[in-house]
Amino acid sequence: MNLNYTHLLPEIILSLTGIIIMLVIPFVSRNQQVRLGYPTLVGICLAFLVLILEWNQTGLAFFGMVLQDPFSQFCKALFLLSTAVIVLITMTYLKQENLAVGECYPLLLFATVGMCLMAAGADLIISFLGLEILSISTYILVGFKKRNYKSNESAIKYFLLGAFSTTFLLYGIAFVYGATGSTKYLIIAESIHTLNFEYHILLWGLGLMLVGFGFKIALAPFHIWAPDVYEGAPLPVMAHLAVGVKISALIVLTRILFQVLPELSQEWQLLLWVSAVLTMGIGNIAALTQTNIKRMLAYSSIAHAGYLLLGLTAHNELSLQGILYYLVAYTLMTLGALTVVQILGGQNEHYIQIEDYAGIGYRYPFLGISLSIFLISLAGIPTTAGFMGKFFLFAATLKSGMYGLIILAIIASAIGIYYYLRVIVLMYMGELQDERSLINIPLSLRIVILIMVLGTVYLGTLPGTFLNLAIEAANF
Amino acid sequence: MNFQLTVLLLIPAIGSLVISLFPDQKGQTLKGIALLFTIITFLYSLPLIIQFEPQSDIMQFVYNVPWFDVGFFHIHYHVGIDGISLFLVILTTFLMPLVILASWNVRTKIRSYLFFILMLEVGMVGVFIALDLVLFYVFWEVTLIPMYFLIGVWGGARRIYAAVKFFIYTMTGSLLMLVAIITLYFFNDAKDFDLVRITDRLSSGEISISPVAELLLFLAFFIAFAIKIPLFPLHTWLPDAHVEAPTGGSVILASILLKMGAYGLLRFCLPMFPNASLSLAPLICVLAIVGILYGSLVAMVQPDIKKLIAYSSVSHLGFVVLGIFSFNLQSIEGATFQMLGHGLSTGGLFLLVGMIYDRRHSHLIQDFGGLASTMPRYASFFMIFVLSSIGLPGLSGFVGEFLILQGAFLAKYSYAIWATLGIVLSAICMLWMYQRVFFGITEHEENRVLTDLNLRETATLIPLVILILWMGLYPTTFLHRMDASIHKVVARLEITHQLEYREP
């Protein structure tokens, strides 16, 4: 056991970049603060580079607190790339809203550090710390539009409920410690394996941790906060909530359930089964009635967490690769859709109602086609990433013989198709409501959207390469 | 390895890309390009008929490469055709140029219209040639999106309702099919999705599934196909979709998309799940007969010509299902033949309705009357297609219906008797419609000044008429090539049938 700090080099680089930018902010004039996005991107790229160079270098670090394995590296790569896109969206957002909040870049970086630590944690304490770093940065980010009531309301709501749920998690961790005598994953798994633990106390711990993670992932019945917070949060932060926060919490949950508590699968499979059904059902049904596109996408992201739970509930050798593949697909399509929504929203998120999308398909051909592809992918229709992801998750679920669950998942997806299509219907079959001026899309975002569109189609037509990556990453 | 079928997919795909490079303003050029690409596709598909080995019952023109062969999943790009799919592929490539000719009057957003038509061609040809279950599913769904847009953007007044209804119905069915495909995969120890091999292993008993599982798998596939066909009582999306779709969309829907369902029954349900097919056949045949009678009875009272033809399609496809589930050589051959015949005659009828709609912007029967005197050429064409549709000997419709009835008679007397009643009803309804539209006195002033068919419209219809006559007068050209493949399907069913009776 030694320090092995190279395993944490990406996190260190991100933190340093964040701190340096924090220090520089006071010396940058208000209208130049937007440009702090560039050094942020440089930091992320550096971290990514280091991650790639370190690829295949696995092992424990920091006295067994941090674990570098293919799984954590895969997730870290995903987090870094998604944060890069979010930083780009933030830059256009700040410019468009005329906001001088340079602080949001370092906060995004710190949040990413938290996410990476969560993926790499080999100890409940580290995972908890990662989650807290992520959460506290995110509480601030949600409210960074400080003159806006909705943004403030969201921040308070998210903070109060988030802090409350974190205590559940911590309480759960304490129970697990009490039951097994350690917070280290490997030791807990070992003591469960050798039957050297207190069954009932561990069960309490499991339940409380599920509540905590369920809140962060927005699993029903702990999802109530999500639509309100998502709606009020500035769009780039909503993207961060829907992608970064949700995925990282899901990854920790996956690791804890699959690596630490696989022998309690009888117990947690039942809980997750119920939660998966509720999450898919509530997410899809509630999305049907939304009139605001942000709220609709919020419910849709809840529904997608439900599909991911299918993989967790199945708990077999196909689950993990299915989950990882779906996470990539989900990141691509959700980020893509939100990027387009952000561009179309205009100043002050003016065009955010679904009816505002009437007829814009022919007014803005590029955005229209891109959004259609993302929505088709979210609906899970073939030749897009969403379909392949669902295919792998359904395969995992069927392998475990959970036919009831799959039937409910199918009903939920069929409902889901309706509201995604409704937006496409409006875009191409409705009439343009008012004269809209042409939108000037920054070149960087244009390229990013194009990459995400191509990625969505690539993952849907030639899934081989990424599935291979996911399979390699799918061992702890 | 044979690239012919793959090229057949690629030509329209390249065509759709070429079209998306041009601006919307160059409408005529775009139509020209699309026409060119569809004609090339058609000409390219013709050698398939000549090179096809009629005696062989295995897949021909096969091309099989791994698509993604990773970890647990072995999915192949595997295409090929046999006697059942050969003519469906040709029917598709043959109709597409006509569809584009019929769309000559589409003015709005012409680029995306043609793009979707060509994408549809890729999807439809793909469905008929795919021999890997996942590949089949992907093509099956690929046809969905373009059709949805064709109805939703270029359709009539209630287009959005019709488009969404069409989409939800078909998608629910397909999701069920997806589950069945994956479940089948887990029963298959070889871990592949190869249709030919799975079918062989199922019939040789290498893949053993319990009767209950077989029944459920059969139902999952069957419901997906029954929605597409559409079989009574899952047909309610069809009249809406037909009435609202633009002419080109209606023709594709009636002539090809509906055939995908019947093709699926023949290719998947019967060979893979013979026991379940046999045990559910009585129920399905009854549903088919109800569909035949109900379709023509409801068609009779429709005020709208398009809706009338749509309901008569329900009735005609009832015949196809009855033929397939009568399980003998005649009936299944008749069903396959009827698919082609119905594709031509109903496709032609929808083209004709589109032509009158271009002139009068209506397809209500009450708006017409006495058209025969103002548009004699139009009236004669309409007569040919109506007669073919009701099965006049010498035209394509007769051969199919005759074979189906003969086969149904062998299976069970009562099936044939009820189905014959359906033929009478459908003749009444079509001829009555013809009488109201074309004969009598011209009541509406607008109808006196209508121009007869122009050169383009005549050119669209003549190939159809030639084929209808050919199929009616010399069906051997077609039946000869279907024989071996259909015989294989029937033989498989008969083996199962005998086993079933020997067991107790």
Report on the architecture of this protein.
The complex is a heterodimer of chains A (476) and B (504). In chain A, a hairpin with a 4-residue loop joins strand 1 (59-61) and strand 2 (66-68). The longest helix of chain A is centred in the middle third of the chain and has 32 residues, at 149-180. In chain A, helix 12 (293-314) runs antiparallel to helix 13 (319-345) and helix 16 (385-399) runs parallel beside helix 18. Chain A has a two-stranded antiparallel sheet with strand order 1-2. The model of chain A has no long low-confidence stretch (mean pLDDT 89). Helices cover 74% and strands 1% of the residues of chain A. Chain A is globular, with a radius of gyration of 21 Å. Chain A has helices at residues 9-24, 37-53, 70-97, 104-120, 124-142, 149-180, 185-193, 199-217, 225-232, 235-260, 265-288, 293-314, 319-345, 360-363, 365-379, 385-399, 403-429, 443-461, 464-473; strands spanning 59-61, 66-68. With 476 residues, chain A is mainly alpha-helical. Chain B is mainly alpha-helical and 504 residues long. Chain B is built from 20 helices and 2 strands. Chain B has a two-stranded antiparallel ribbon. In chain B, helix 1 runs antiparallel to helix 2, helix 3 (83-102) crosses helix 20 and helix 11 (247-272) packs antiparallel against helix 14. Chain B starts with a helix and ends with a helix. The model of chain B has no long low-confidence stretch (mean pLDDT 86). Classes of the chains: A mainly alpha (476), B mainly alpha (504). Chain A binds chain B through residues 317-318, 321, 362, 376, 381-383, 387, 391-392, 394-395, 398-399, 406-407, 410, 413-414, 417-418, 421-422, 425, 428-429, 462-464, 467-468, 471, and chain B through 67-73, 109, 134, 137-138, 141-142, 144-145, 148-149, 152-153, 159-160, 163-164, 167-168, 171-172, 175-176, 178-179, 182-183, 185-186.
